[in-house]
Amino acid sequence: MNRAVFLDKDGTLIKDISYNVDPGLIEFEPYAFEALELLYQHEFLLIIITNQPGIAFAYFTEEELKKVYEYIKNELRQQGITLSGFYYCPHHVSGKLQSYAKECNCRKPAPGLLLRAASDMNIDLSQSWVIGDILNDVEAGSNAGCKTILINNGNETEWLLNESRKPDYMVNDLKEAAEIIIKTWV
């Protein structure tokens, strides 16, 4: 079975600009390339998992989001890093578009995106990690059976803790997260 590192997109891999689908505005977080290169060299699958309620609110389309994915994938490829997957939740219960305005099992903190990726790519979730910038990312990872790392960059504002929302590690950036993962698994 494969092992993976699941990465939140906004605020973790790239700078968080609300509802952005303009590739020209995308800026990677500090040390993103170095961190992902280290994980990729150690044979972790690299998979983005992201909530994208902007689709449900009709701020942008799935096609526009796919252009963001292609941009990120190409930027990583230029650094010698292969992105194995991109899983997103387009839903929100308060969405304007009827087909996306619903409860689902894929919107983090639910683990649906991780479970789908694990099924698609034969991933052992107990040997995998979730890195995110808010506790919903941590909860999704915990609920899927992954180890979790919270990047404490100021994006989490609620700090509602319970057993599934306690990260295994808390770090300042992606590089620290990657180093912990490698030290733990080597």
What can you see in these coordinates?
The protein contains 5 helices and 6 strands. By secondary structure, it is an alpha/beta fold. It has a 6-stranded parallel sheet, with helices on both faces. Helix content is 32%, strand content 15%. The longest helix has 17 residues, at 62-78.
Gap from first CA to last CA = 17 Å
* Helix/strand/pairing category: alpha/beta
Strand content: 15-25%
Determine the mean pLDDT: 96
By oligomeric state, this entry counts as single chain
The percent of residues in helical segments reads: 25-40%
Work out the radius of gyration. Answer: 15 Å
Spatial ordering of strands, largest sheet? 3-2-1-4-5-6
Q: How are helices and strands ordered from N to C? A: EHEHEHEHEEH
The number of helical segments is 5
| Low-pLDDT segments, ≥5 res | none
Shape category: globular
State the major sheet: 6 strands, parallel
Number of strands: 6
In short:
With 186 residues, this protein is an alpha/beta fold. The chain contains five helices and six strands; from the N terminus they run βαβαβαβαββα.
